[in-house]
Each structure stands twice: as structure tokens, then as C-alpha cells.
Amino acid sequence: SEFEEKRILERIFYLKYNQLSLKEKIIETKKYSQDQRQVFAIQQEILSKISFEDLKLVLDLSMELVEEENKSPFLFVEKKFGFPHSLFESEKTRKMFKADLEKYNKTEMYKKYLVQSGLEVFTSLNEIDFDKIQCILEYDIVSPFSSTISKTNTYFTIGVIQLLSSIFNENEMEYNPQKNIREQAQKWTEFLKKEGKFSNQKIYPSFNHNS
């Protein structure tokens, strides 16, 4: 079938160019196929495996990224890192994000952008409110706190998981888009319970000050 043929061609690309650098892989995708949908799929697969430290390079390569119909080439930042892809849709906002990457470390980036997205999970002293984090991990996947977000959109949860993995230096628990997000959120809930980070009082607020 056409689908199987495309998957075979994508697999051939990975085998042929696996040893190339990230920059070289992205550039080669556009030479590899005339089918923009296929190039998009290959690029998104490559980008789904990058690290947080690769984001600056990817922003420099933004002109090499292709979109498929109405799908943004920056969908991966939402699915992998929990940053809304709308932050990357213009050259101006991409430059602003890159400037922040050069200014802040990973933990500071997530603190800034979670708050900027309207997620209030920090105290007045800029410390994490773990009870609110617990609610995000347990409920945001089912019913996102922002009324403007689709119920299938989980980038708040992804961002929180990435923030926690950075704070606790738990690289093995960093968000993995290839794994079930509910199971990953549950693992973090159990981890934080063992660390004694939650109070005994359960809270169910909306954390989005724009809702």
C-alpha cells in the first residue's frame, strides 16, 4: 500500500543517514523526497528524539523545517517539551525564545513559560506548590485547566514533567513522547509522594488565571 511504501522509505532514510549530525539530517530530509508529507513525517520523527539542549540549533534551522497542510513544523516542541507550538510560529517569537534559552537554564525556562502560559503552580516566593503540581499530574490529562484547550492537549502536563525532571535531576523520568503520558504522570505522583512533597489536603482549583 501507499502507506507501507512511505514507511519503508522513511525507514531507509533513518538507516542511511543515522550517523549524520542533527543539522545534516534535517537538511538531507528535503533532498530525500519530493513528498512534503513524507519530509514532514521524517523531520518530526527526528525532532521527537532531540534533547532540550538541541532546541537552539533547531531554531537556527527553522527555515529548513516543512509543514504538512495545516500542521506546524514545531508540533514537536509541544509534544516533546510541553511548550505551545504557537510560540514558534513567527521569526520574532522564535528569536525571543532562543534569547531566553541563552539566558536561562532548563528549570528557569520551564518556570517562566509555565507561568507565561497561565499555569500558576508557584508560590509568592517563587517556590513550587507541589499540591497544585499533584492536581496537574492527576487531572490535567483528563480535563485541561484552560477552557480554551482541547481535552486531548496535554502540554501543561508535559511541561510540568519536564520541570520536575530538571529540578530533581531525574533524567530517566524525563518526559518521553513514545510512552504513555498517564503512566509517566503517575510515576511522578508516586515519586513526589515518597519524597513527602504533598500535604494531606487535596485541592482541585483551576490554575489558569486566564480561564
Query: Would you report the number of β strands?
Result: 0
The averaged pLDDT comes out at 84
Report the portion of residues in β strands.
Answer: under 5%
| Overall helicity | 40-55%
- Low-pLDDT parts are 143-152, 205-211
Euclidean distance between termini CA atoms: 46 Å
Structural shape: globular
Order of SSEs: HHHHHHHHHH
Biggest pleated sheet: none
Alpha plus pi helix count: 10
Gyration radius (Cα, Å) is 18 Å
Structural class: mainly alpha
Description:
By secondary structure, the chain is mainly alpha-helical. 54% of the residues lie in helices and 0% in strands. The protein is built from 10 helices and no strands. The protein has helices spanning 2-17, 22-32, 36-47, 55-60, 75-81, 91-103, 106-116, 130-139, 155-167, 181-194.
